[in-house]
Write a structure and sequence with these properties.
Number of helices: 10
Strand content: 25-35%
Radius of gyration: 24 Å
Distance between the termini: 69 Å
Number of domains: 3
Shape: globular
CATH superfamily of the largest domain: FAD/NAD(P)-binding domain
Structural class: alpha/beta
Strand order of the largest sheet: 3-2-1-7-18
CATH architecture of the largest domain: 3-Layer(bba) Sandwich
Helix content: 10-25%
Number of strands: 25
């Protein structure tokens, strides 16, 4: 009896999890995973740690290597193999070997697309100059690392003040460089946090030596061979190195006319993560994920999303119409910005507006531990923002910020949002108390009580 042929496109989180789930659940599968790049499963989210010498080595910043599955006869990992076309009538994919450019067709019974996203270069004159880099992938990581260690590189400009841009700016400051951080919107991290928190972080960035310029439009990168400056509508910025971290775009151009995409190129799926093609599924960063709090399909480029989707798809891979649809995700993340740590989950003002979701907002500021513990390092200020439905009080989002590592609170918020708890539920939730850690009412209890108009205890 022949084995079921499962083809996976993309070796990052979604592709890796798909292999693990297939091997765990089924014995009679023949798995082929195609990866266009040379280095399999580099974790770009670990790039800052690598740039700051906080990893065992750049070759270890990965989910897996092909050798991890070399003893398994059911798995074949083919790097430097780019899938260029789905031939749905024949149930094959066309694959080009990027080393010799030879093309070959491979059959599939089931096809899982986890093609991911590509960094978005700024479309201005000079973006092809030397020392204009992107902040994503193995090759860029090693090149940026070399420049951070180059004494000739003194001025670094980071374009884009989202997570990746903040990480690039911090790593560059720690390498002793003069750093400017640019963004077209009015504040750093503006799509992740509301203004109450970004104001705190923007000042902290500047205190640490980052020049923050927002509301800036780039006109061109200048230089004869390599970049020397950036011209904007506000000023010219000397730059020996430009790191572009201005967002991503779905890697789906090769799917146009075959797989249904939205007007920005994101893959559309139904509630079972099936595409418009029979036996073709899509997961991960290139798709529109179902957001529980938004009750809408939106791009959520997170490893956690890809892995949950892969787990669901493989579990139901041989069901025409699974009994249960994919339950959706919340979308949660965290970041350190020098001395501050924050976590955010679900919706905020920006993402709620994008999905036409009506929200009520509460912002709370208080101490982590009881008042009899002196304010400072051992009893820092914590900022909590909650977003909830104005009528039902169901929690739709939240964020927590402090110089203390309170990011575990983000998991509490994520679970509360996923299970559609209310502000009242959070206000009364039974958390532990020990004055070495927290207050008699936990910081999340108090933030929820504040949202309900109660007096701070």
């Amino acid at each position: 009896m022949s084995k079921t042929k499962v083809v996976i496109v993309g070796a990052s989180h979604g592709g890796h999890q798909s292999i693990l789930e297939l091997l765990k659940r089924y014995d009679d599968v023949d798995i082929k995973l195609f990866e266009a790049g040379d280095f399999v499963s580099f974790m770009s989210c670990g790039m800052e740690l690598y740039l700051e010498n906080s990893v065992t080595g750049v070759n270890d910043v990965r989910n897996f290597s092909p050798s991890d599955f070399s003893d398994n006869k059911n798995v074949e990992i083919l790097n430097n193999h780019q899938v260029t076309k789905i031939n749905s009538d024949k149930k094959t994919v066309t694959v080009v070997n990027t080393k010799d450019q030879n093309s070959q067709e491979y059959p599939y019974d089931k096809l899982i697309l986890s093609s991911g996203v590509n960094p978005k270069p700024i479309p201005v004159p000079g973006n092809d100059l030397k020392n204009v880099f992107l902040m994503r992938g193995y090759d860029w990581a090693t090149q940026i690392k070399a420049k951070l260690e180059d004494p000739e590189v003194k001025n670094i400009t980071v374009v884009g003040a989202g997570y990746i841009g903040i990480e690039a700016a911090e790593a560059s400051v720690k390498a002793g460089k003069n750093v400017t951080l640019l963004d077209v919107i009015d504040r750093p991290l503006g799509t992740y946090l509301d203004k109450e928190m970004t104001d705190i972080l923007e000042k902290h960035l500047e205190d640490k030596g980052v020049k923050v310029l927002t509301g800036v439009n780039i006109k061109e990168y200048t230089g004869s061979d390599k970049v020397t400056a950036i011209k904007t509508d506000k000023k010219e910025i000397p730059s020996d190195l430009v790191i572009q971290a201005a967002g991503v775009q779905p890697n789906t151009d090769w799917l146009k006319g075959t797989v249904e995409l939205d007007n920005r190129g994101w893959i559309k799926t139904n509630e079972y993560l099936q595409t418009n093609l029979d036996d073709v599924y899509a997961i991960g960063d290139a798709t529109l994920a179902y957001s529980i709090p938004a009750d809408n399909h939106v791009p959520i480029a997170l490893a956690t999303v890809a892995r949950r989707e892969a787990r669901y798809v493989v579990k139901h891979l041989f069901e025409k119409n699974p009994a249960l649809p994919f339950s959706g995700v919340v979308g949660s993340s965290a970041l350190s910005v020098f001395d501050y740590h924050f976590t955010e989950s679900g919706l905020n003002s920006f993402t709620a507006k994008r999905s036409n979701v009506d929200i009520k907002i509460s912002f709370y500021q208080g101490s982590l531990r009881p008042a009899y513990v002196p304010a400072g390092k051992d009893n820092p200020t914590v900022y909590v923002q909650l977003f909830f439905n104005p009528s039902s009080h169901v929690l739709l989002g939240g964020s927590v910020l402090s110089t203390y590592d309170i990011t575990a609170q983000g998991n509490v918020l994520a679970l509360a949002i996923q299970h559609k708890l209310t502000v009242e539920d959070l206000a009364d939730a039974d958390f532990f108390f020990q004055p070495g850690f927290d207050r008699q009412w936990s910081i999340l209890n108090v933030a929820a009580q504040h949202a309900l108009g109660e007096t701070d205890f």
